[in-house]
Amino acid sequence: MKLNIKYNNLLDIINLYFGAYHPLNSFVSKEDFLSIVNNYHTKSNIFFPLPIYINVSSKFYNKFKNKKIINVFYKSKKVCNLHVNSFFTINKIDIGKKIFRTNDSKHPGFKEFLSMGDYFIHCKIKKFNRKIMKNLNFSYPSIFKSIFLKNKLKTIVGFHTRNAPHRSHEWIHNFGLDKCEGLLIQPLIGQFRKNEYTEKAVIETNNKLVKKIYKKKNIFFGLFNSYPRYAGPREAMFHAMVRKNYGCTHFLVGRDHAGVRKYYGKYESQKKCLKFSKKLKIKIIDFKEPYLCFRCKKIVNKKCDICKKIYKKNVNGTFIRKMLIKNKKIPNFIMREEISAMLNKKSII
Length: 349
What we know:
This protein has helices spanning 7-17, 30-39, 58-64, 92-100, 108-115, 141-150, 167-177, 199-214, 233-245, 268-275, 277-280, 317-325, 337-340; strands spanning 2-4, 26-27, 55-56, 69-74, 77-88, 119-126, 156-161, 182-189, 219-221, 224-225, 250-253, 283-286, 291-293, 298-300, 312-313.
């Protein structure tokens, strides 16, 4: 029995197998799915904010519903076997509303969820083919835990991004290092949308910042190879748990973390992560959004003593990408010249 999977399925399998999604190590049952959505816990009372699932079409289900082993392939390459416990269905509209907190079909996460197959598989990963890792960008949680232990770092803060680094990011990095001994800059890669940076641009610019510009023994570069779910506060908690699995003791949560457009409150993800910090078993570092004072030409996150509000400008990935598309030179006080020199129109999907 053969199942050809999508890229996001492949990434979930890999992350489950190597422990990035601990304490989950398999695709959830119906009972766990519903319990996680409704209560943030599995049926056995294990805290987890997002269900990790794999689903198939009605056609696949009707043909193979009595099979117990599924051979999984991605682009003709064997990935693993899935040992099936059960197939199940859920009310995707009702459940999707709870996960994404909207019934707007234009929400990218909700839209994707509704478009996927109607039958979910409760199953375990067996006979994983490690050869598929050869051409994948992936950071192994066990390796980073060993690195932090070797460097005798008691506190490490994780930083999550999907952008090329700019000066506001650097302010956040320094803010985290003021509170912790070490910093893990770990971009999320996997799937990007139109008008976002390419995976290559995100990897190369962040890697250069860490290894060629910062060049500090307590600042590390890694990758979280997964995909954006756009689930706002739920996904922010999920990102925190992943960083705990990589060995971080703290996690930075900023403005509209894991949000999209106007579906979630500006600091809602921070509030949710702080509320469940003990359950997450990682300390949350929150902060107000840093901004550029055009008069001082520096990044601050508190009211500037010298300048008025009219000199305030939010610096983010969207703002910088618009400049790149228009072939505008990015000032050094917005993004380091060493980084901006690596970017152009082709750096954007």
